[in-house]
Amino acid sequence: MSWLVTGGAGYIGSHVVRAFHAQGIDAVVIDDLSSGKEGFVPAGIPLVQGSILDGDLLEATMTKYAVQGVVHLAGFKYAGVSVTRPLHTYEQNVTGTATLLAAMERAGVDRIVFSSSAAVYGTPDVDLVTESTAKRPESPYGESKLIGEWLIADQAKATGLRHTSLRYFNVVGSGTPEVYDASPHNLFPLVFDALLDGRTPRINGTDYATPDGTCVRDYIHVADLAEAHVVAAKCLDAGEPVEPVYNLGSGDGVSVGEIMTAVASATGIDFVPEVGPRRTGDPARIVASGELAARDLDWRMRHTLPDMVTSAWEARRTATEG
Question: Which CATH architecture has domain 173-217+250-287+302-321?
Fold first, then answer.
């Protein structure tokens, strides 16, 4: 028996696969490698190259590898780009999820951990986001993730599917030097690329109502996130009660200014970030509570900010040197 990890060749997915392996649970990966990398999949883990839009391939893979449950991470994850590519976003994230659920039903697979997103909340008007905070997604990406949650919940009502969805904000760091965040839109890769290119990293706005004037966000280490996915899967396997959704939040955010200081310390590159104007739509603070996940999924911040930055920098440099 094994767990299927869709998108398991990606930055987060490959960490989830490693977390399963560390727990002695077999895993199999399906990924179309549009953003994932074959080299991110650990040796000995089956990799099926294909799309979650291919229902026959999904069903065949689940049958071949005796899949008992699915961690669903595959999808189009660029919120900003989704605004200009809404149809593509919906196809990958909504049609893809519906196709997966149909294939699971045909294959008799009755449990799923869904990788959702804090983008379902849009710009919250509270200091600390909880699972009950109003959902006001502001991009096709956020909308597609919320619809994915609805699809799974409706399928559960119809078929008894066991499920939970994990919402999280900014995932950083690395659990192994072989895997790094390659996104062209995330803060850490943007800062590291600037330093490696000899440019000065940039902060957008220093006049927010925060302690140092820069935006405060919720950053979590990718290895902690991966571990939570495996704990959720084990709860579903054991038939233990779980909530339909959990926030994986720190409860206490980190400012962009603090990150810049930590990056200078970790890299040994002394720099003073450039300051640009605020970006439209950037709220001063977005931080989530992880209390429910701490209660049920052993969720906690096992890594500090220096851990996050140092591990991310090491992985990025390993990729550059390799």
Answer: Alpha-Beta Complex (3.90)
